[in-house]
Design brief:
The structure holds 2 protein chains of 2 kinds. Chain A is an alpha/beta fold. In chain A, about 30% of the residues lie in helices and about 20% in strands. In chain A, α4 runs parallel beside α6 and α9 packs across α10. The longest helix of chain A is centred in the N-terminal third of the chain and has 15 residues. Chain B is mainly α. Chain B contains 22 helices and 11 strands. Chain B has a 3-stranded antiparallel sheet, with no helix packed on it. In chain B, a hairpin with a 4-residue loop joins β2 and β3. In chain B, α6 packs across α9 and α7 crosses α11. The N and C termini of chain B lie far apart (about 75 Å). The chains are: A alpha/beta, B mainly alpha. The interface between A and B is large, with 62 and 52 residues.
């Protein structure tokens, strides 16, 4: 059910979209949870949880328990947006998208923790209705009680200034990301033909309307710049069977390798650094990871983090 | 409230008409893909022109077409009243047109426009003979014209209406509605269905089935058969009181009360007259008897001395000869004057490049232009809207035929919906696996325009989107990755061209193949893990 507040929000969002770009700032409220928790060398060590050898749901439960449970992130009455990777019109076993079981389970956990609503969307690469369907995510999310939102509806995106961005100074960002109380990032780990790897940071290209800008102006810097606007409260990487070649779309099921791993952290750079290692890279070789680390948006120096490793079998 | 027809014949006709009209309308406006691909495919298969084209190449629709001919020979032009969606649309417009105040409340009997009818019919036949059949049928096929009106005009309007209520619906908690980008065709392409709808609307509002009995070549062709039908609607002179009720209900203006005859070549078998006659004085009569004992006269124009000196007959013959000759000459010249590829010499590559890219399953541009009547069922069904009506990209011949527009979208690798819906055999492929190796075009990479080359930053949007991995990336300069293209793997789906962020001219462009080819398929072994397995690498 929608409340009056939601209606007002929706109306404002629509109004902002239809108004001139210059006016959008008047309507675009500051994100409820601004980019806090900038990890500095002086702050507490961020926790990185790595779980192996279980099924996805069990590994997710284990990782969340280590981070204080879902209630550490979702308070009763809050609105939640979950951003999986739903990029490609391909089935779960091909590993091109986040596995539906993770999205479904996470939705159920958020609602059980008292979330007012859980929304799921992605600005897909392939035709969106097909992709939502074939990925299995639409059904899993809906069955668990989530609202599945069209990521190809330009009116749902708002032009938002990104003052701390180096190249990306402004972007049309999906209103769910701007307006939801809790933002959870649930990517899948894959090879990528350009950035070599796509995981948590690169997954956030799916909350932006105009990806051409990234590609034209400097992909890696733009990926890092967006984090200065809003960082997800929690990042969960599905590395159960990462696609290790022909990414990010993949060709066949032969492109995936079974690793049965799940990574989770509040630090988006840290999870990506660990993910890079799973694919055999040195984290600093992944340009957007290095840039984000240098901008102090998170830490890729895993040796200085509080890494909690769990083998379930 | 429209009263339910009491006459069983009319009831059956109206029920069939509603089924075809509603079914095809849904198939053509369905912007949410609620309806299965079979719906449009099956209903369109029963249409005359798709069936005829199927017959000419011995395709799947041959049997249905022949059944249609036999039925017409048995009971007349029921196609026009029960199956043809354009005919039914005109009936709806006529009904609305009755609200317009005017002096005459009904359409009186009118003389047939025999010469004009035959000019349109035989021009179409001549065009087909001259190799311009696809063009002529695309312009005149009633089913295809209906399809274009709904697909190009009604569909985007309905999408727009949907979008205008999405905000309210979502705010009210109805999440099943979402915005859909309206698929407007280009202004030039829109002009034709808009013009056609205007003509049809005026003609049918003022004169009922005038279009069907003057311009439509399908109407004329079926009229030629229905003149000799075994059962024809006829007036029983013994029962007739000349009250004129039948005349008032006739939308084809084919009932001549003075002579008590009905022009069977123009009667569309709507059974309106049968239903209104309170004296049961009008209905089907077997008309193949040698010596009719009843007072029911022969078909068509009443007993006229049909000799070569009959002026009407002479006009008829002259119109056939004239239109056949003129059309043949015009079209042969037009074809010689308009080779699409010579107009764009830059694209000529071993004589097989095509400026417009024809969809998978069409085999070749030439075959496609012959077989496709531009009904736009595939354009309506295409989930990505990569299929767009051509203006002159195929040349004049290909006016309004579907083409792949990689500025709008790209062809979804796992999709065969256009092929599933096509009623013309214009698009046909055995299965998805065949489509995935059918090369409809080939990409060309222009490194000098590529972001990686020009800006010195990573991009690879083309490679990301490539479903066959014809485009991969290789290390380039300092820590960059440059797209690398293997054309033998390319199917020409356009994903790379669509994704390329370079403007205005993209750095990777697909050129269509006049004759579709076969792409190689890269087979790889199962991938191996890049890092140590069994433990955490950190």
């Amino acid at each position: 059910m929608k409340t009056r507040r939601d209606f007002v929000k929706t109306t404002l969002a629509l109004g902002a979209t239809f108004s001139l770009v210059d006016f959008s700032g008047l309507f675009a409220a500051e994100p409820p949870t601004p980019a806090t928790g900038l990890s500095t060398e002086t702050g507490p060590k961020p926790i990185l949880v790595a779980v192996r050898d279980g099924d996805r749901v069990t590994m997710l439960d284990k990782a969340l328990a280590e981070l204080g449970g879902i209630q550490a992130f979702v308070k009763p009455g809050q609105t939640v947006v979950i951003k999986p990777n739903i990029g490609w019109n391909s089935t779960p076993e091909r590993g091109a998208n986040t596995h539906p079981s993770i999205v479904g389970h996470l939705t159920a956990l958020c609602l059980a923790a008292g979330a007012k609503s859980v929304s799921v969307f992605d600005n897909t690469c392939d035709q969106w209705q097909k992709t939502y369907e074939i990925s299995g995510i639409e059904k899993a999310a809906k069955d668990a009680g989530a609202i599945v939102v069209n990521g190809k509806d330009e009116t749902l995106y708002r032009e938002t200034p990104i003052p701390q961005g180096v190249i990306l100074k402004s972007a049309k960002v999906h209103s769910l990301v701007l307006d939801s109380d809790v933002f959870i990032n649930v990517p899948v780990l894959k090879h990528h033909s350009s950035t070599q790897m796509t995981a948590a940071m690169k997954n956030l290209m799916g909350v932006i309307w105009n990806r051409d800008f990234y590609h034209n102006k400097g992909l890696d810097q733009c990926i890092a710049d967006l984090l200065t606007l809003r960082k997800p409260a929690l990042n969960i990487i599905d590395a159960y069977h990462p696609m290790v070649r022909n990414g990010p779309r993949g060709k066949t099921v032969d492109d995936v390798v079974e690793m049965r791993t799940l990574l989770a952290s509040t630090d988006i750079v840290a999870v990506d650094a660990a993910a890079a290692k799973l694919l055999g890279h040195v984290p600093a070789d992944i340009k957007h990871v290095k840039i984000a680390h240098d901008m102090k948006l998170g830490r890729m120096d895993l040796e200085n983090l509080d890494v909690r490793r769990h083998k379930l079998a | 409230m429209i009263p339910l027809p009491r006459n069983p014949l009319k009831l059956a006709r109206v029920a069939t008409a509603i089924l075809f009209f509603a079914g095809l309308t849904i198939a053509f406006v369905d912007f949410r893909e609620f309806s299965p691909a079979r719906l449009g495919h099956v209903l369109a298969h029963a249409q005359f022109v798709p069936g005829l084209l199927s017959l000419l190449i011995g395709g799947m629709g041959t049997v249905i077409f022949l059944v249609g001919i036999v039925v017409t020979l048995a009971i007349g032009r029921i196609y026009c009243s029960a199956i043809c969606p354009l005919g039914i649309l005109q009936d709806a417009i006529t009904r609305i047109g009755k609200w317009i105040p005017r002096k005459k409340r009904f359409l009186p009997f009118a003389k047939p426009q025999t010469a004009l009818r035959h000019v349109f019919l035989w021009s179409t036949v001549a065009a087909m003979a001259a190799g311009w059949g696809g063009f002529a049928l695309a312009l005149l096929d009633p089913y295809s014209n209906f399809g274009r009106i709904v697909s190009m005009l009604a569909r985007p309007v309905l999408t727009f209406a949907n979008n205008s209520i999405v905000g309210l619906a979502n705010a009210a908690g109805i999440q099943s509605l979402y915005r859909v980008t309206p698929a407007w065709a280009g202004a030039g392409a829109l002009l034709l269905p808009a013009l056609f709808l205007t003509v049809i609307a005026i003609m049918s509002a003022l004169r009922g089935r005038l279009y069907c009995n003057t311009i439509c070549p399908v109407g004329t062709a079926l009229g030629l058969i229905s003149r000799f039908s075994a059962f024809r609607i006829a007036i029983d002179k013994a029962a007739c009181t000349k009250c004129g009720d039948c005349l008032r209900s006739c939308k084809a203006q084919c009932i001549d009360l003075r002579s008590g005859t009905i022009d069977a070549s123009r009667c569309v078998a709507c059974y309106n007259c049968v239903g209104v006659c309170e004296h049961h004085g009008i209905g089907y009569r077997f008309s193949w008897k040698k010596n009719p004992t009843s007072a029911i006269p022969a078909p068509a124009a009443p007993a006229v001395n049909r000799t070569i000196n009959d002026p009407q007959r002479r006009a008829f013959l002259a119109s056939i000869a004239g239109s056949v000759a003129a059309t043949s000459v015009i079209l042969t010249k037009a074809r010689a004057a308009l080779p699409a590829e010579e107009a764009t010499p830059a694209l000529v590559r071993s004589g097989e490049a095509s400026r417009a890219i024809c969809p998978p399953g069409s085999r070749s541009v030439d075959q496609f232009l012959d077989q496709c009547t531009s009904c736009h069922l595939c354009i309506s069904a295409c989930p990505t809207h990569v299929l767009q009506p051509a203006l002159f990209e195929y040349g004049l011949e290909g006016l309004l035929k579907p083409r792949m527009d990689y500025r709008s979208a790209f062809c979804l690798f796992e999709c065969t919906r256009c092929i599933e819906v096509c009623p013309d055999d214009a698009l046909s492929l055995p299965d998805l696996a065949t489509k995935q190796v059918t090369q409809i075009g080939v990409a060309d990479f222009h490194q000098s325009r590529c972001v990686v080359e020009v800006n010195g930053t990573d991009c690879a949007a083309c490679s990301e989107h490539c479903p066959t991995k014809a485009i991969t990336t290789k290390p380039y300069r300092e820590n960059l990755r440059l797209p690398s293209l293997d054309q033998s793997l390319c199917v020409g789906c356009g994903a790379c061209e669509y994704a390329c962020p370079v403007k205005p001219t993209k750095a990777i462009l697909v050129t269509g193949r006049r004759q579709h080819g076969h792409a190689q398929k890269l087979v790889e072994k199962k991938a191996t893990s890049p890092a140590q397995t069994g433990d955490f690498p950190f």
